[in-house]
Amino acid sequence: MAVQRALVCLAAIAMLFQLAIAANHPVGAPGGSWDTSTDLKAWAVSQTFSVGDNLIFKYTTNHDVLEVTKANYDSCGTSNPMKTHTGGNRVIPLSTPGKRYFICGTAGHCGQGMKIEVDTTAAAANSPKSPPGTPSGGSPPPPKSSNGENLHTCITLGIGLMLMLV
């Protein structure tokens, strides 16, 4: 029984530690934001995104954030976004590994560079990025879940495990 409690406690600590190491990525920072004057491509390439991290978009109301397919990212197509975010500030959790694409839906802004490609890795936040073209090995990423679902599950499991210890 004591070993079981110790294992449960270690699992709870590991889950809470994962939440604590998640990084917030203010898009375009420092010195820039989600706008046409920031070199967003250079910013995105300079970042390492890991599962559990958050993208923080801060923008004026004449902009928005559209999550789109790779084809729409390449062509700046705005007609069929996967998700649309408006309102000036948006936190987007990176809950699964893989590439995601974001553009501004305001006419002409995507073509002026207001778009980013985010490659989220399953590795820890402090691990180095693989060089481009390096095979990731392993199986395909799990199906995408709704925003915040992994965080909610982690918190629920952590609370449940801690209650078991009482």
Automatic annotation (TrEMBL):
GO molecular function terms listed in the Swiss-Prot or TrEMBL record: electron transfer activity; metal ion binding
UniProt feature, compositional bias: Pro residues: 129-144
KW Magnesium (keyword) present: no
Entry annotated with the keyword Ligase: no
Key words of the record: Copper, Glycoprotein, Metal-binding, Signal
Phytocyanin domain residues: 23-122
Positions of the UniProt region annotated as Disordered: 123-150
Coiled coil: none
Cellular component GO terms held in the UniProt record: plasma membrane
SUPFAM superfamilies hit by this protein: Cupredoxins
Stretch forming the signal peptide: 1-22
Protein name per its UniProtKB record: Phytocyanin domain-containing protein
Organism: Gossypium anomalum
